[in-house]
Amino acid sequence: xxxxxxxxxxxxxxxxxxxxxxxxxxxxxxxxxxxxxxxxxxxxxxxxxxxxxxxxxxxxxxxxxxxxxxxxxxxxxxxxxxxxxxxxxxxxxxxxxxxxxxxxxxxxxxxxxxxxxxxxxxxxxxxxxxxxxxxxxxxxxxxxxxxxxxxxxxxxxxxxxxxxxxxxxxxxxxxxxxxxxxxxxxxxxxxxxxxxxxxxxxxxxxxxxxxxxxxxxxxxxxxxxxxxxxxxxxxxxxxxxxxxxxxxxxxxxxxxxxxxxxxxxxxxxxxxxxxxxxxx
Length: 280
Description:
This protein is mostly beta strands. 4% of the residues lie in helices and 47% in strands. The strands form 4 sheets. Strands 2, 4, 6, 9 and 11 form a 5-stranded antiparallel beta sheet that branches. The protein has a 5-stranded mixed beta sheet with strand order 3-5-10-7-8, with no helix packed on it. The radius of gyration is 21 Å and the shape is globular.
């Protein structure tokens, strides 16, 4: 028995690019927000950015056009509404490799951590964030609790010419930015894109006891298939094409009698990504 949980897909580890390369970046990953606008002055947001943010890569500067803080609907001082930050950028040619949007945060609000909604050229995904360290980081970045979001994007979602990425605080309170970047990676880095874990507990079902195996795919791309091989038995599930975000597939299998190493294989087109999971 197999269930597809999250609406995204695998793409196996094969690409022309062998090394990570940055397509663009906003700010520096240094755990401070001094290279952004209004650093440490969150009260100035509504005055300096009354219409939220539109940032054109290659033209605008983070020090004047990207605020250090992104307020959410729970922030009364920012109008108690969702705020959308838009990044507009041009690509001279299609992406050669596997793209990722990396959002490096100095901190998130501790009492009401936000949910970010990311939209890339019309495809969207919700990204929850963990509870941060507290309000002291609003003026002291060293008091923050860093969190990094690494969101996979299907290569076909990015196009030659103008592209748009929107970040919206759909729920909760604020985040504080350290940096943002769009990068592409190749085969060497993609070997860590498949993660698998087995639940230690066995669940009851009408057909007998079952153990759940969760397979996480930190890469997007074309439709494919996931296969879990345990001994001489294989469990398969088709995975549809998805374009943005991490995918999680859950496979429910009969529990093993003793610790067993199983092979997980994901195939899309002519490419293959493989990993292992320990079943107990």
